[in-house]
Amino acid sequence: MQALFAFIVAFALALGLTPLVRALARKSGFMAYPDERSVHQRPVPYLGGVAIYLASVAAVLVTGPQNRPTQQALIFGGLFILIVGIIDDLYNLKPWQKVLGQLGSALIVVALGVDISFLTDPFTGKIRFTGIFAIPLTILWVISFENLVNLSDGLDGLAAGISGITALVTVFASVRAGVPSVGLAAAAIAGSVFGFLPYNWHPASIFMGDAGAMYLGLALSVISVQGLVKSTLAMAVLAPILALFVPISDAAFAILRRRSLGRPVARRDNDHIHHRLLELGLGQKRAVLTIYVVTAVFGVLGLFSTFLPISGTGPLAGLAVLGVLLVAHKMGILALPAERCRRKSRTNEAEHAE
Q1: Domain housing 262
Q2: Longest dimension (CA), the chain
Q3: Greater confidence, 176 or 341?
Q4: End-to-end CA distance of the chain, in Å?
């Protein structure tokens, strides 16, 4: 019941705050203008991350007993990365500058007591202490989540929906892992995202911006560490990881694609999964809903894995990876851009000949 209360409070606050933030963004000139990579065709306010942050933090503060390091990490680490994101939205930071800001947020999280100090061995169930690797492992975890959510913010409502579904999955996984206090924070994150989503749904009247995307990444990383990574239920950590499998796969494909073409890994392109869905003829809404469904399916698989014996989780994860690779091959994601152009050209010629 407390988790439901946290969700409702955050949802109501985000629903009420977002129009106010949107009006402030328009008045202050915080607008995202279309460019060659943009899907949207008109200027859109992009301070939505502020509404998500305020709603989630307020809900965390007013809804019952919380895990203190989690609470403080969301407030202070979240505020830091939110500011970094706003600066990035305004001035388009260089990749190294953004990573430096993400590193700062991760160090704040660690300083406030969130760290991967031990793991549960998924094969034996024994506790394994990470020792000197605790801090670098936690920093890598936080930065990875921040970039995964930010990477998925390519269509109206996409990053918000993925984050909301992942947060809901984490609520149930936290309860299953015996850490319901962390589940309250996850419920607050989910509520704030779903309260924001009606305004971010296509055609979006406001964007969360890099500020909102990176804050959500930090929040998901913190609650997954505190609730699941260090849980004695070793497989609980698979729940949020599988729920984020679409952006994880997209990031892996992007790195391989750019490396194979000799491009910098940080250079953006229009070859992500959501771009492929648009090329296949799905509109924004259908493309986003498709990814929602896939995210929910993987999230449910992650929750299901917590009820399996340890021996059964390996094949489950293997099937998930195989399924993603097969779908990616079918969509042409694994093909190089030049090869996709040749395929598209042959298809157009065949259609013209008919």
Answers
A1: 2-353
A2: 68
A3: 176
A4: 61
Strands 44-45 and 118-120 come out as unpaired
Cβ neighbours of residue 216 closer than 8 Å, sequence gap 6 or more: 49, 52, 149, 159, 163, 189, 193, 208
Greater confidence, 259 or 152? 152
- Report residue 339 CA to chain centroid gap: 30
Q: What is the 3-state secondary structure (H, E, C) of the chain?
A: CHHHHHHHHHHHHHHHHHHHHHHHHHHHCCEECCCCCCCCCCCEECCHHHHHHHHHHHHHHHCCCCCHHHHHHHHHHHHHHHHHHHHHHHHCCCHHHHHHHHHHHHHHHHHCCCCCCEEECCCCCCEEECHHHHHHHHHHHHHHHHHHHHHCCCCCCHHHHHHHHHHHHHHHHHHHHCCHHHHHHHHHHHHHHHHHHHHHCCCCCCCCHHHHHHHHHHHHHHHHHHHHHCCCCHHHHHHHHHHCHHHHHHHHHHHHHHHHCCCCCCCCCCCCHHHHHHHCCCCHHHHHHHHHHHHHHHHHHHHHHCCCCHHHHHHHHHHHHHHHHHHHHHHCCCCCHHHHHHHHHHHHHHHHHC
In the predicted model, is pLDDT for residue 344 greater than 60? no
CA dist., res. 157 & res. 177, Å (int): 30
Report whether 206 contacts 48 (CB < 8 A): yes
Token readout for 332 is 């042409």
- For residues 27-55, average pLDDT: 85
Q: What is the pTM of this model?
A: 0.86
pLDDT tens digit sequence for 159-181: 999 999 999 999 988 888 888 88
CB atoms within 10 A of CB 214: 30
Number of folded domains that form the chain: 1
Decide: 138 and 106 in contact? Cβ < 8 Å.
yes
Residues 121-133 have pLDDT tens digits of: 655 667 777 889 9
Mean pLDDT of the chain: 82
